Amino acid sequence: MGDYPNAISNHEQVAVMSGWNDDNEKRQVEGLRKAYEQRGVQGYWEQEWEAAKGSRQYYRQAKIEFHLGHTNEAFSLLKQSYESNQRSGGWYLPDLYTLLTDEVWDGVHKDPRYKDLLDKLGFSQVMPRLKE
Length: 132
Description:
The chain has helices at residues 4-17, 23-52, 58-67, 71-84, 112-120, 123-126.
């Protein structure tokens, strides 16, 4: 939502309250804080990419790539998320089911690749297809 310092603090608080406050988590939070302080929003997302690259968290990686301005790469990762039917956080729904509610994708609702993903996920069977 644009409030990066507060987001970093909240990330840290969640880590502490959840018992995830190991050295790796501390380094990640401090890395985000330092990257944001030195390079602003771009630095924040570059640091997020460093933490996410190499993982198989395709939806998370897609969001990061989109924030970095790499739209084609983001859609490629969304496709990988769809093809692998990824789920996270113990949810039974695939990560892609947040395509309609995640504000990250608000600017691409008219992109044919976005519409194609909604169709593949079955949204067009229960709601009208997004117009051009």
